[in-house]
Amino acid sequence: MGLIGRICSFFLVCSSSQTTKQTEDSQPVLLPNLPPEIIVEILSRLPVKPLLRLRCVCKSWRSLISHRQFAKTHLSLASSMGTFYTSHRLLIIGLSSGVTSCSLCSILKERSDIDVVELDYPLCGETRGVCGGVRILGCCDGLMCIQSKCTLFLWNPSTRKSKKLPSLNLPPAHVVLDGFGLGYDASIDDYKVVLMLKDRRSIGIALEVKVYTLRTDSWRRIGDFPHDRPYFRLHPGVFLNGALHWKLDTNRLIVSMDLAKETYGEFLEPEYQHGCSYEMLCAFSGCLCVLYHDYHRTCVDLWVLKEYGIRESWTKLVVVPYVTSPSYLKFAMPVCILKNGEVLLKTHKHLVRCNPKVGTFTYRPIPIDLAFSNVHLYVESLVSVDMDADGGVPWQHLY
């Protein structure tokens, strides 16, 4: 019997006060009740896949595991699982291939096989094999906003559930998407998608900003973005401290958008060395981070904003050296920063674990074509694309 079978049998026995077992003397012994709070405590520490199967055990379990508050508790625990990263996965999108996911834990365990799963994303049958068939516009709490065949979806790759976003009713021939992001508004317990739109025929005009709210399933226009454009159109806004962040293309500013107030703020980048080039904006251990290539592209500097919004708190955390042999590693892209300070890099052929302190590289061949692919780190979660799922039912009424 597998792990799920043993868990089901155990809970089914312990959750009933009328269940008995036979001793060696054939005398029936009453098994004790397992308190509901203990059941919640145990279930909330299980991975998403077993939990989806355990919903079939009984109605109360189905209601519990589908409850929005349970999803929050599960997400909080999954996001803080120490250095094991058992709930973290990499989403890999090839230029013309499908979408695959692999376990970060299996990548870090050098002697284990890498857990790779091919995912069916919304409209995958119509976009598979098409160059740029799917695009990630934002990631937050295991939810992703994706663009598939010119249609926007909220998608949870762990539960395989998705929701099609309503149309913006804009003429696509004249509108270009110049910025985007997905984040969580704690003030209303809801998720928001932000799009920055610009008319191709306009020059030097601020970007029109549209905000989608999951609970209302509708778009609204808010105040225009206060600058011409964020840096590149390929980088989603980084969600941190209740705000989305974008690096500007034209100066050393990082612009934020507070999702609760829907207002903008800005602060300066670090005083990095002249000749360095911006690479990417990311978040690490609750801090905003910026990556820069040096002038000769021999290393990447990782800067961390230790006190949010205060430029003087920018600190160079690590310098990730690039090796020159094999040549393709020289153009490696950082994927994530591990809690021990190591950096996971992506090349055309490998995932590489770099220890900047001693300058060592550990190669992990992966059975996926990484050439021209985008890699996104996410945490497995039960967060639903349906905000009305059991949201108003108290936990004590589920038993």
Structure commentary:
- The protein has 399 residues and is mainly beta.
- It contains 7 helices and 26 strands.
- The protein has helices at 3-14, 36-43, 48-54, 59-66, 68-79, 104-108, 124-127, and strands at 20-22, 28-30, 88-93, 99-103, 116-119, 134-140, 143-148, 151-156, 161-164, 175-185, 190-199, 208-213, 218-222, 238-240, 243-247, 253-258, 263-268, 277-284, 287-293, 299-305, 314-321, 333-337, 343-346, 350-355, 360-365, 374-379.
- It starts with a helix and ends in a 20-residue tail after the last strand.
- Oligomeric status: single chain
Shape: globular
Largest sheet: 4 strands, antiparallel
**Gyration radius from CA atoms, angstroms:** 23 Å
How many helices?
7
SSE class: mainly beta
Poorly predicted runs: 16-20, 392-399
| Helical fraction | 10-25%
Q: Going across the major beta sheet, what is the strand order?
A: 5-4-3-26
Q: What is the number of strand segments?
A: 26
The portion of residues forming beta strands comes to 35-45%
Distance between the termini: 27 Å
* Average residue-wise pLDDT: 79
Quick structural gist:
With 399 residues, the chain is mainly beta. It has 7 helices and 26 strands.
Summarize the helices and strands and which ones pair or pack.
Layout: H1 3-14, E1 20-22, E2 28-30, H2 36-43, H3 48-54, H4 59-66, H5 68-79, E3 88-93, E4 99-103, H6 104-108, E5 116-119, H7 124-127, E6 134-140, E7 143-148, E8 151-156, E9 161-164, E10 175-185, E11 190-199, E12 208-213, E13 218-222, E14 238-240, E15 243-247, E16 253-258, E17 263-268, E18 277-284, E19 287-293, E20 299-305, E21 314-321, E22 333-337, E23 343-346, E24 350-355, E25 360-365, E26 374-379
Antiparallel strand pairs: 1-2, 3-4, 3-26, 4-5, 6-7, 7-8, 8-9, 10-11, 11-12, 12-13, 14-15, 15-16, 16-17, 18-19, 19-20, 20-21, 22-23, 23-24, 24-25
